[in-house]
Amino acid sequence: MELTPDSYVVLNDGHKMPVIGFGTYAPQEVPKSLAEEGVRIALEVGYRHIDCAFIYGNEVEVGQVIREKIADGVLKREDVFYTGKLWLTDQAPERVRPAIEKSLKNLQLDYMDLFLIHNPMELKPGDDPYPMDENGKVIYHNTDIRDTWKAMEDCKAAGLTKSIGVSSFNRRQLELILNMPDLQYKPVCNQVECHIYLNQTKLLEFCKSHDIELVAFGVLGSSRDAGWIDQDNPFILKDLVLNEVAKKYDRSPAQVAMRHLLQRGIVVLAKSFNPERIKENFQIFDFKLSNEDMKTLDGLDRNLRYTNGSRWFDHPKCPYHDEY
Fold first, then answer.
1. What domains sit in the chain, N to C, each tagged with a CATH number?
2. Which of 73, 151, 189, 212 has the fewest beta carbons closer than 10 A?
């Protein structure tokens, strides 16, 4: 398939998702106005897929820009594919619908295009996003994920979201949902960390075999938020082999890293609040990597996960103990 700026994948429920999305996560210390300006530039450049989440704390700003572009007549609501996420303290079934309704109120939108379970590692239900015990340890919880999924299905049936999916699930956790006897809707996607150092080949094959799209975050090596990321990890964009390939095509390492994933049939989320990089990251449709260069980049995999959940590695639902 020839990739163009308008390229999309057809999800298993018939809805269409643009193959490149703009990510809006930033560490706490980054002003929310940067996310607002980033989304504005992204929409002007041509991005039509915006990825956000309740826990990012910038839904109000992101929604404002989307509505502003619609009010200006630049876009229609159906032109924008908006993804939101259910936070870990809202996985108890009775909290799912209020959670999406709260996000929609923040956004001032009537519906989401995609609503994801943000992560399988559930925390104690409540309004504190990181509930702690007296020792400063995060309090875990254990709702059956299938009950959470039923509540997600109800949100889709109610028209609050067009599609539903998951994020950071491993194969076993996906199978729990796929094997539900009364399953109404399969997850349309699994959004996971994926890049040249973590190419997720086995998980990609599993998802494709069930008509589930793999959506990649952290494609350029994550935001390196010190709260989550080991600062000694290598920088993807400084990889020598990646830079050699980029030179060959007269492209930036970021453009080649993203193009590599697109050609593997993965939906890519790019994140930057630098106007020039936002534009550059969208300019990946006018060149194509050769089969040889694809293989070279495939060979860089080192099973390196930046967001490895190390602070919650003892969570019974931590997805990273399995091979994939």
1. 8-321 (3.20.20.100)
2. 73
